């Protein structure tokens, strides 16, 4: 789609949501992760897309596929980039390049269920996450691009979920062996 087509699509959705706010709450496509043995897991989308994950050899995996943590970073980067592209289209900003790099640092003791020197459990998730946005626009003021990135970041669903620490309702269903 061109930037104009994206902007028109966004305007149509916004008009519908203005008239029918209840339409804004959408059930999202579920992600199903199935164990295939060892540390190999395959995540599936209802449309048939499949993404295999595995752990590095140090954790007993084969190390051939991406890790679930990498998928988190990839999703975070892709979601942010998508929101920036949508925001640019909506504002009529012509981008010439856009790249989002997501990095993080984790303490593997958390994954192993270990405690720190004070006996406190080490968190299993990333200790910090960084996003680096590289962006350029044809004839666009750098301040306008900075504002675009900052505003778009605030609208990113994954960014919002991370910032607000969305609660998770865990259900456990025990099956037959």
Order of helices and strands: HEEEHEHEHH
Number of strands: 5
Label the structural class.
alpha+beta
Mean pLDDT: 94
Helical proportion, percent range: 25-40%
Distance between the termini: 49 Å
State the strand order across the main sheet. Answer: 1-2-3
CATH superfamily of the largest domain: K homology (KH) domain
What is the CATH topology of the largest domain? GMP Synthetase, Chain A, domain 3
Rough outline: globular
Verbal overview:
A hairpin with a 5-residue loop joins strand 2 and strand 3. Strands 1-2-3 form a three-stranded antiparallel sheet, with no helix packed on it. The protein has a two-stranded antiparallel ribbon with strand order 4-5. It starts with a helix and ends in a 13-residue tail after the last helix. The relative contact order is 0.12. It has two domains: 36 residues, no CATH class; 98 residues, K homology (KH) domain (GMP Synthetase, Chain A, domain 3). 38% of the residues lie in helices and 19% in strands. Helix 1 packs across helix 2. The protein is built from five helices and five strands, in the order αβββαβαβαα. The longest helix has 24 residues. The model has no long low-confidence stretch (mean pLDDT 94). It has 177 residues and is of the alpha+beta class.
């Amino acid at each position: 789609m061109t930037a104009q087509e994206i902007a028109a699509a966004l305007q149509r959705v916004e008009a519908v949501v203005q008239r029918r706010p209840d339409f804004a709450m959408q059930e999202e496509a579920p992600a199903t992760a199935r164990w295939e043995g060892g540390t190999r897991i395959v995540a599936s989308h209802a449309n048939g897309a499949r993404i295999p994950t595995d752990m590095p050899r140090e954790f007993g995996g084969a190390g051939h596929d991406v890790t679930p943590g990498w998928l988190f970073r990839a999703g975070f980067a892709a979601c942010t980039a998508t929101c920036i592209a949508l925001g640019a289209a909506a504002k009529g900003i012509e981008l010439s390049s856009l790249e989002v790099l997501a990095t993080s640092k984790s303490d593997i003791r958390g994954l192993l269920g270990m405690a720190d020197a004070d006996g406190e459990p080490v968190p299993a998730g990333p200790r910090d996450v960084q996003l680096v946005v590289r962006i350029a626009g044809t004839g666009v003021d750098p301040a306008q691009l900075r504002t675009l990135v900052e505003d778009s970041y605030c609208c990113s669903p994954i960014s919002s979920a991370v910032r607000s620490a969305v609660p998770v309702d865990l259900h456990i269903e025990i099956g037959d062996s």
